[in-house]
Structure prediction request, 114 residues.
Amino acid sequence: MPGTRKLGRTSDHRTAMLRAMVTFLFENGKIETTVTRAKEVRAVAEKYITLAKDNNLANKRLALAFITKEDVVKKLFEEIAPAYADKNGGYCRIVKTGPRRGDAAEMAIIELVK
Prediction:
């Protein structure tokens, strides 16, 4: 994907990290991470919410191939996506929370907009 950030990881590690973070975001509604990771997670999460708006078997299989938990995919298709049926994008919000204590990395909370 052109324009994606490498985040100091190999492509396999980066994909695994994004899968875990997107799954956790859909499961809990919000996560705290660095700003650059949050921006990458937002791009992927919004793609899957848009995909889930059209509730069919092919889209469920595409979501299951990326999201690591079946119950989270069920929640995505039955609860999360219908809540955004009338909205075209902008499903996630990133709120900066300041520097992290150990290494001063800029931290942020990414959450699903209600």
